[in-house]
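U., I forgot to send this yesterday:
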Amino acid sequence: MKDHAVHAATYAVKAIFYDTLMEEQERRVLEERTWQYQYLLGGCNDHGERTR
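Result:
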């Protein structure tokens, strides 16, 4: 269900945050969010290929 995707994306960021040294947290979280915006919001098909 697409409504659950937001929660999965947030969980991924939290997991990275808590598994990263404090000095690297901001950079790693930003990298993850950037990837999410580009890949998940940018559109992809069932094979992970971009559609847009």
